[in-house]
Amino acid sequence: MLFHALLYAQIVRIDATKNPPKSPDSPEASICYAEIVRGINKRFDDVSTRCDDENILAVLTLAFHGRTVDAAPTKTPSQGPMNAMQGLDIYAGRLEVVTMHAIGLGRMLAMRGGLGEIEFTGLAAMLS
What we know:
With 128 residues, this protein is mainly alpha-helical. It is built from six helices and two strands; from the N terminus they run H-H-H-E-H-E-H-H.
């Protein structure tokens, strides 16, 4: 499931940077999305894996990789110290929060006991 979540995020990011942006309903993205949801639901059946780090990371991926096709392409910084900022146009305009998944993510974190209970290195920082 985590493999599909990371693959889905990359597909959505690549598709969003195409000019014109590629449809958010590409077959590859749809297959990955279905596998992620199937995996999350399967792990939710088991109380011990319901809110583990892997499930939280998968829902995080779904929550912050929503897409709009009508977003206008923006110019990306491409020189000097601005190289590190090249992804800002994607997260500041072409990718949206998926409210349903963001709410679910919040509930999972509450069930888990908060950010202090996260064990994956860097995951708590991404969530905060």
